[in-house]
Amino acid sequence: MGDLLKEISADSESAMKGRFLTFLIGDETYGIAIENVVEIIGIQPITEMPEMPDYIKGIINLRGSIVPAMDIRLRFKKPEADYTERTCVIVIHIGGMSTGLIVDCVSEVLTIPDEEISPTPDIRSVDRQGYVKSIGKTENHIILLLDCEKLLNEAELETVSLQL
Questions:
Q1: What domains can you pick out in the chain, each with its CATH number?
Q2: 86: which of 2, 33, 105, 144 fits an S-S bond (Cβ 3.0–4.6 Å)?
Q3: How far apart are CA 92 and CA 17, in angstroms?
């Protein structure tokens, strides 16, 4: 995990274009644009908060800052899984606040050229919320590239921020 952080922090903003932090949820590979990533940490003790959506597991104390922790499995309506030593929290910045994304494990930082990124198929029943912004292709993998801003809509952001 430390090597990934060094790789992320060594990037300048222009060098970040086309770079994605990839992670697994079950057998599926997802990616988020590297410029959205603040840091990657191991799973932390989570304090539950009342009246939060089920996918907001609670809050974590990140060096004195209180950060909501969202379980991406639950956000995508996948079965809940136990957290392991490979479980990570990817801290991103959404709507003016930091949010921790709980993922099964972080994979790597990939550069995906624009010509290898396609729009999502126009199937209405797939990803109604718009979480998947586009699809990245590598040698023999498909990576679902997420739109971090869509992971929490404005009403959900307000609910979470009011509780904190």
A1: 2-163 (2.40.50.180)
A2: 105
A3: 17
| Identity of the residue numbered 108 | E
Give the residue ranges of DSSP H helices in the chain: 2-10, 13-16, 72-75, 148-151, 154-163
3-state secondary structure of 26: coil
Closest Cα to residue 41, out of 104, 90, 82? 90
- The model's pTM is 0.83
Contact assessment for residue 136 and residue 20, using Cβ atoms and an 8 Å cutoff: yes
- What is the bridge-based pairing of β-strands 132-137 and 142-146? antiparallel
Q: What is the pLDDT of residues 57-84, one digit of tens each?
A: 999 999 999 999 999 999 999 999 999 9
Q: How far is residue 148 from each of residues 84, 151, 153, measured CA to CA in Å?
A: 24, 5, 10
Task: Give the pLDDT score at 97.
Answer: 83
Exposure on the CB side of residue 148, measured as CA atoms within 13 A? 22
